[in-house]
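Amino Acid Chain and Its Fold in Token Form
===========================================
Purpose: to set a sequence beside its fold so the mapping can be learned.
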Amino acid sequence: QSTWGLPVYDPTRLELEDTEELDGHSDMQQVLEAAQTNMWWAGKELKADQTLEQYIGRNEKTKIVVKLAPKSSGAPVREPRIDEATHKAMLSHYYKKQEEEKKLRDDEDDSYLDAEWVNLKALKGQLVGGGRTVDWKAR
């Protein structure tokens, strides 16, 4: 008997050898009857009387992942775009950033602008006449 080049644990090999135990205890072993099953892709139900070309176009290299669901259950639940750990990390990062911005906004104290060391004309006053007024008189 040929092994088809598949590993011992591969479900395809077990199915081909007709040794797969379908006891229904795991997700991989849930068996759906073809007549009682709908195929779903991109939130749309794929009808058996239509070709895939009508859904995805003529590109032969397009790969789609179809979800199988019993006809009685309706459309399958959409999977989240990001996993829960990444979502929590993003929320934490944005919360810290928001708190930092809030601290910076509250710390906008402009009272130092009235201090003498901020005087923009102080340097000119020191250089020209040592801070005294300059008199221009002809000699």
